[in-house]
Design a protein that fits this description.
There is one protein chain. By secondary structure, the protein is mainly α. It is built from two helices and two strands, in the order ββαα. Strands 1-2 form a two-stranded antiparallel ribbon. The protein starts with 6 loop residues before the first strand and ends in a 9-residue tail after the last helix.
């Protein structure tokens, strides 16, 4: 005894299809499907916020370069046995 209560809605102008199969009640599934369809249509209407290009400040650039220099000095200072002249 299986209940066939799934609902599939299609928005004809956009061709968008949503499906709801969670509940055993077809009425509840229909409501869920309508909510999903409304949410998907709202998401399609949403306009993305324009991105404003930004540049790093001079101070942050200098800090980054100082950190890179310190890191490279640390690495250079490690030196394995191949860096020694005696052997």
């Amino acid at each position: 005894n299986v209940t066939e209560s799934a609902v599939r809605l299609r928005h004809r102008p956009t061709g968008l299809i949503v499906v709801a199969t969670e509940s055993r009640s077809q009425i509840e599934n229909r409501e869920t499907a309508f909510e999903r369809l409304a949410a998907r249509l709202a998401a399609l209407q949403a306009k993305p916020k324009p991105r404003r290009p930004t540049k790093p400040t001079r101070a942050s650039r200098e800090r980054r370069l100082a950190a890179k220099k310190a890191r490279s000095e640390r690495r250079r200072g490690r030196g394995g046995r191949w860096d020694r002249e005696d052997g």
